[in-house]
Every structure is written in C-alpha cells, then in structure tokens.
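Try it yourself: sequence plus glutamic acid, in.
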Amino acid sequence: MNHVRTRFAPSPTGFLHIGGVRTAMYAFALAKRHGGQFLLRVEDTDQTRFVEGAEDVIFSVLDQFGLTPDESDRHGGDKGPYRQSDRLDIYKKYAEQLVEQGDAFYSFESKEELAEHRRVAEANKERFAYRSPYRDLPLEEAKKRIAAGDEYVIRQKMPAGQGIIFEDALQGTMKFTTDDVDDGILLKSDGFPTYHLAVVVDDHLMEVSHVFRGVEWIPSIPKHVLLYKAFGWEMPVFAHLSLILDPGGGKLSKRKGAVAADEFLKEGYLPQALLNFLMLLGWSSPQEREHGESEREFFSMQDFVEQFDISDLNKSSPVFNREKLLWFNQQYLQQLSPDLFVRAFTDWVDHYGDDETFKQQLVAAGPEKVQNMLVLEQTRVKTLAEIPATLQFYFNEPGTVSFAEVKQLKNLTDEQVAGVYRDFLAELSRQESVSSWGHEAWEQSVRTIAERHDVKAGSAFMALRIAVTGSPFSPPLFEVMEILQKDTIQERIQRYL
Ligand code: GLU
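Structure, out:
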C-alpha cells in the first residue's frame, strides 16, 4: 500500500458524537497498521456554529481514548495549518483557479432571489437542482461587478447530464448524475469556503490517502468527484461508514442515554471498553473468520491495529446495544490489575468528579485506604461513576435503617438484636483493632454470638452490616470493618442500642 495518511476532521461544535470516535479509531488504526500518520483537522468554516472551548473537547476526548494525532494544530506537522479558518487564503486561491478554468463562477444572487427560487421549487413540489442565473455570465463582467464592490460567492458549475460513477471501499459502486446536483457554493461571501471545497483541497494538500466518514456525506460525492477532476488530483480511497442505529430504530437517541463521547466517559466507561465495543460496530476480525474464533469479542487497540483492514468492515448499519456496552465495561473493570483499577478511578475523579467534598475526603483518607476501599468495589461495579456512592458510608455516617424493611431481620426481637450487638462490641473492645484478628476468627465469633441469642448466622451478619454500612448490600463485612476501624464501628453500632 502507498504511504497511508488518514485524518479525522470534526467540526468544533462542542459535541463529539460517540460515532465520531469510531470513525477516528478506524482512521487511526489504518494509519498505524501501515506505519503512516493520523491527522486531525479542525473543520471550522461554519462560523455561525462557533463554540468556545470546542477544540479542547476534541483534543481531550481523543487523548483519553489514546487516539492521539500525529499531526494537528497542537501536535505540529508540515502540512498545516490544520485548522480550516487558518487556511482561507488557500481556499480562495483554489476557488479562483476553478473560476479561471471555467469549473466555477462568480455568482451574485441576492437573498430575495434565492428565496424566490426556493419558493418556486417548493410550490412545484419538484426536487430539481439549482442552476444559478449567473453561471454563464462572462467572466469579465463578473470581475467588473466585484471591482465595483458587489457581494459575491463562488459556485461550482455543474455540467449538464453527466454521469458519475464512484467506487466506495465499503459501500461499493455508486452512480450519480450531475442533473441532481446544485451549482453549490464553494466560497462564501465572507471569504470562508464551504465544506465541499475545503475538504477536497485539504485532503489533497495534506496528502490524505484514505478517508473515513459517515454515510451522510454520500450525497456530496458528485461535487467532490468533479472538484478532484477539475484540479487534476487523484482521489483518496473513501469508506463511508454506516450510521449507528438505536436498538429502538432510527439514529442513536439522547433520550435513551449518552450520545456524546465525553458523556460516556463521564458516566464512568473505560476508554478501552468503549473502543472495544465501538470496534465491533461494523468490523469483524479476519482471524475470527479464518480460524472459526466466532466467540472472540475482546480486542485491545493493539490487536485491532494489527488486524484492521477496510475489507473487514461491514456495510450494514450496526445497532448500539447499551447493555452490551455496560457488560463490556464491567468485564474491562474486572480485568484491570488493582493498581490500574485505582488509577482508572482516580483519573476519572480528576476529569469528571464534581463533588468537591468527596474529593477532599479521598485526599484526607490517603492513597492506601482509598486503594483498600476501591479494591472491594472492583468486582461489584459496572461503571466508575457508581463508585462514589458506594464509598459514601466510609466518610459519612449512614442513616439508620429500619429492621422491619430487611427480610433477614424483621422477625428478630429487640432483645436478640441488642444481644448480638452487645456481644459483638464486647468482643471488639477486647481486640486492639479489627485487623488484630483474622476474618475467620471474627466470623467464628459472630457465629457463636448468633447461636447464643438463637439468631441465624446470616441475620447476625446482616444486623452488623446494616449498623456499620447503613445498607444491606456492602462489600465483605470484615474487610469493610478493617477500613472503618474500631471507633467508628463502635459508634455506629451504639446508635442501634
Ligand atoms: N467536518 C465534517 C463533520 O464534522 C467532516 C466530514 C469528513 O470527515 O469529511 O462531519
């Protein structure tokens, strides 16, 4: 394969769709597989959509996913600038070249003229392509109007009745006719290019060899093909990725949960779990097909890079199964070493934690204690975002729970409960600390206490768990007690006596 250069070209809208991460990941993987470059270009030619801080979101999300560009406005590279608003002179030059060649023209329609055109088109209920009344205006005349200060745009001059055949590496052969395509704007009156001009010029000048983008760009293909032709440039390979669907049908919907990439991160999904899930939305491993490894679902980014090829993409629309993603995330959380699990959580708190008190509590508890707390949660949580709530009882005295609400406890008499608590406290006060006795010794001791008061062992454990943690669900009792330590446990049990 020739030198591979791919790009991700988001518009800085402040919102990076999770599907955009899939697109970026495919582009990244292809470049890495072939020792090429992955570049990031910011497509900010629509100034009406300018959003403060939007570029930061893009860079930060890509970084968190490990999809760091080799070239970009922030990473350098010799094919820049990599932000379209910094390339206006380039687009102007190429647009004017097209005008000189007769592939584009200066156009002067007023807002009223365009509105009238739209009105007629709608009244006729016909979908016909826009043909500008200025497309055949002699160039000399157009230039005179411009010199006189008339506002203008540059439009692409669509030839009549020309068939266009386009080979997409994923979607296959497509046919278009120029009769369906507008004399579209290439350069706007504010001097900014439209997407169509900018994307063609930039992909060429940045020597992009492969373009991954969404199927929503398919209708623009004829414009792009004609631009490449007019410039005499070779086209990159294109793969238009199918739309990701909601299980309920239609586009992935916000009503059912997160859609933006950083929302998923904020909800406590691990980047590597998300990437693995996204890989499989439209790709299957060739090894799986060759060796019948049909069950294989886990792929690290490295596995993926080693295998990824456009020919293994699937053109049917993948369904975004949120339960499956949650399952992946849980699997990934459980597979982390304890150290990495702690790291993942602390990174998450740094990035997305918004509870300042909780953050201070973590600092005050110190890394060792926090690590002990977290390790007990590793097999229990499905996302990192569930963790802060599960740790609350370590830091804040939990509310008391009514025994009538707990199955194992509601038939106990007050004397039985008090007996269990008193005997346990007596035992605790005989020990220097919780950890000076092994868990087995504690467990045996609680069983003996339970028997003494004619209570099932499970009920005695439950009564202690509730007093200490405020919940019938907690990590193993004695591990929790070791972290809470003697004084706190005593105070919490006292409240029930
Ligand atoms: N700026 C376009 C978008 O955000 C990029 C399309 C492309 O990749 O060519 O959808």
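One thing you can check immediately is this: The first strand starts at residue 5 and ends at 8.
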